[in-house]
Amino acid sequence: MDNWHSLGTAGEHIEVVEYRADWPLVFEREAAAILAACRPWITEGHHIGSTSVPGLAAKPILDVLPVAAGPAKADEAVSRMAALGYRYRGENGIVGRFYFDRVVDGRTVMHVHMFPAGHPEVHRHLVFRDHLRANPDAAREYERLKRELAARYRDDRRAYTDAKAAFITSVIDAAMRDA
User: Fold this and answer.
1) Confidence band (pLDDT; 50, 70, 90) for 10?
2) What stretch of H or E contains 33?
3) Parallel, antiparallel, or unpaired for β 62-68 and 107-116?
4) How far is CA 66 from CA 19, 51, 106, 163, in A?
5) Strand, helix or coil at 10?
6) Closest by CA position to 116, among listed 62, 72, 63
7) CA 135, CA 10: separation in Å to the nearest integer?
8) Are 77 and 66 contacting, i.e. CB atoms less than 8 angstroms apart?
9) With CB atoms 3.0 to 4.6 Å apart as the test, which of 21, 112, 152, 169 could cross-link to 100 if both were Cys?
10) CA–CA dist 176, 86 (Å, integer)
11) DSSP letter, residue 156
């Protein structure tokens, strides 16, 4: 199996595609590789983002959330992640994040958002994912928004991301109120 055939975008273009059944399998393989290479510093790995929600159209880039035992432990894992083929990009706009991407055959196929245990972004990512998985109407609304924004901001990744922020925050706030 070509492990990357259903993933990747070239350049900075925003593309939303139909959900692909092999995305969870690729996640499982990559999460296992990350955990094997980065233990004991990394204690768990989660599939997040739209590719983690069955049936949801998404940018064909897997988002992975490894959780480090602490900030110093995340630092220890950076060289191990690089050895797996991930490019370290620093915090990339979120304090405390260790951000990586992976490019295969000129296509970005993975985004890795590593945080130390207890960082509030870990909880936020998981709450958002779990809410979309449990609420098909919210998932469909998010898909509609993503398709609209992808058409509007095809060549502006920052604007696309920024335009989704209010929706994401409202879903997380509602999910946390209902919990």
Assistant:
1) low
2) helix 23-38
3) parallel
4) 23, 16, 24, 26
5) strand
6) 72
7) 31
8) yes
9) 112
10) 33
11) -
